[in-house]
Design goal:
The protein has 3 helices and 3 strands, in the order βαβαβα. The protein is globular, with a radius of gyration of 18 Å. By secondary structure, it is of the alpha/beta class. Helix content is about 35%, strand content about 10%. A 3-stranded parallel sheet has the order 1-2-3, sandwiched between helices.
Amino acid sequence: MVYDVTRRETFTNLSDIWAKEIDLYSTNQDCIKMLVGNKVDKESERAVTKKEAVDFARQYGCLYTECSAKTRVNVEQCFEELVMKILDTPSLLAEGSSGVKKNIFKQKPQEFDASPSSCCSW
């Protein structure tokens, strides 16, 4: 769940709408939930305190972090933390995939051929 730290209504909607949706539609009781406060690059415009968000995350059993999509602060770490938590939750892993965890963040990104003649190289 992502909210804008500068817009209180996006935070309010978490408990009013989104947390209920997750509980209603999640098919796995071990579903990993993460709360992400976005736009920390606008600290002077903050409308939701970090303490409020941490309290919400504890209440709903969520991981918590703050980031800025604009400046890329903590964005990669958000995904890494979520993936590692999923990989540490046996009920979320398919059988036989335990070896996946070893090098998941050490793999080189796939490189695409950008020549005009290659298919799907946008």
